[in-house]
Amino acid sequence: MDVAQDTIKQVILSIINISDSLSWWSGERKGQAFNVSIVANNKLQHIVRKVETTMRDIHPVVKKQLFSLSCYDFLWADNMYKQSEEFLIGNPCLAIIHREVKRFLDIEEKIKGYPEVMELGCICLDYSLMKDTLKGLAGSWKSHYATILHQRVKDELHHVVQYRETVWQQLTTPVESLEQLNSILTLLEDLQDMENKIDEVYRPIEVMYEHLR
């Protein structure tokens, strides 16, 4: 902001100083440099002061707009891999991991909604580079957690399929002892209980795969 203020001031001074090499060619001011008259002009001085005052007044507004994006500082300041490792220590369920993916998706969409350029009085804030950078970082976080979710869903599905194959193998193995028979009967009881829970096992996996498409 200070740079912008100094630049505008320098532009004004440059315009004024253009007349350094020019002078009045007639009248009572003949031979006097235009610059002297321009600098002494009350209207021009009023405009210069007005520009300086406007720049000072707009400073907090510009600062507020810039700091409105500071809520996304964690996207570049935090260690994505370390944070996800700490997140997975608690062995979160699929729904919680998906919630993280959704959170970063929402952040990405919110950043997309920011204007490329914002006009604040005589100042234009170019958000394009900052916006593209933050959007890219949010996309990286989203993809990282989506990869974790995909792997977890894959592991869950593998576990379910492996369990089914183990059960099928046990059920199709010829019974040759009383111990095997008791084991099969226990397994059948477990399967009967599983019938009521089958949706609880498969449905979350199906839902997550739908989200990952």
Automatic annotation (TrEMBL):
GO terms under cellular component: dynein complex
Any single GO BP term: microtubule-based movement
One term of GO molecular function: dynein intermediate chain binding
Residue intervals passing through the bilayer: none
Record's protein name: Dynein heavy chain tail domain-containing protein
